[in-house]
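Quick one, probably user error.
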């Protein structure tokens, strides 16, 4: 059980750092704004995406949040990573920028798998 908790928290903290902290600190930089423009999205989309990423990562990291809301956050991140990969593939062609979202998606999948495993283990029998 300790190993499962460690794996869950490590993977969840990585998602929190990558999807919550980094966007919060960098979303208003010129490089981030140019990245959104480069993909053909309007500037306000970058701000909305940042708000939802930060909110979703906070939901995942806080143990008191109900499971239903956590599952919505997990689902939102799945869509985020899939559409990020699609956007980069369409605009830039296949490459590392289209593969990287799948790497983060794998970390998210580990977090979700161990979240479910810990829920099952702590449920009354």
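Nope, works fine. Designed sequence:
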């Amino acid at each position: 059980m300790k190993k499962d908790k460690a794996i869950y928290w490590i993977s969840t903290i990585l998602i929190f750092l990558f999807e919550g902290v980094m966007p919060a600190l960098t979303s208003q930089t010129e490089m981030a704004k140019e990245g959104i423009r480069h993909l053909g999205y309007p500037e306000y989309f970058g701000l909305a995406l940042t708000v939802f990423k930060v909110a979703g990562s906070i939901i995942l990291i806080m143990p008191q949040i109900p499971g239903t809301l956590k599952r919505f956050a997990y689902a939102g991140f799945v869509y985020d990573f899939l559409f990020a990969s699609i956007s980069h593939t369409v605009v830039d062609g296949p490459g590392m920028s289209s593969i990287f979202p799948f790497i983060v998606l794998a970390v998210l999948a580990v977090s979700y798998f161990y979240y479910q495993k810990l829920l099952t283990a702590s449920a009354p029998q």
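Residues 42 and 52 are 16 Å apart (CA to CA).
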